[in-house]
Amino acid sequence: MAADVELESLLRSVELVVLDVDGVLTDGGIIWVSLPSAPGAPAECVEAKQFSVRDGLALRWASRLGLKTAILSSRSSPAVEVRAKELALTLVLTGIADKGHGVRLLCAELGVDPARAAYLGDDLPDLAAMAVVGLPCAVADAAPEVLAAACVVMSVTGGHGAARELLEAILRAKGLWERVVDHFASGNAP
Ligand SMILES: [Mg+2]
Q1: What is residue 116's predicted lDDT score, i.e. its pLDDT?
Q2: CA 175 – CA 190 distance, rounded (Å)
Q3: What would the mean pLDDT of 72-79 be, rounded to a whole number?
Q4: Residue 97: what pLDDT?
Q5: pTM value?
Q6: Ligand 1 centroid to residue 150 C-alpha, Å
Q7: CA of 113 to the centre of ligand 1 (A)
Q8: Percent of the chain having pLDDT more than 90?
Q9: CA of 80 to the centre of ligand 1 (A)
């Protein structure tokens, strides 16, 4: 992520980080796992996703340090609900087709001016949300239209630390990242 004075000021002003799931918190792969079923019974499957533990650490610490975090996804998935709960995300909004509307709902619910929100996306459904926030961001392997709409492009791809990179940059700009580093350097538990 390139550093400049204007970007630093934008990063410092962020109060809410909204994250897409598929292609941002994951690499975009959706795995259907077959469950054991009785012979002759209809097959049952559950959806599995792979998340980055580095994203997880930054999300947990963002919440602890007062930065609001939210997930906004057009799909609904129990795996997302479980992960969001594990990481103490401020809000989760799934099954939302119009993500521009979704971001406005999240901002209204949390009392945050959309100009002080960041959104990290990867594909065309994210464009409407990116148009609403003050800091639209894209993962490194986002669609060309999403890269063009982003103020900031991460150096890594979805599911491989892109959310970590954005959250770390925001916490650094606010002078808070050192607290996270100091916590671990002192040998404290996560
Ligand atoms: Mg996506």
Answers
A1: 98
A2: 20
A3: 90
A4: 93
A5: 0.93
A6: 14
A7: 23
A8: 79
A9: 13
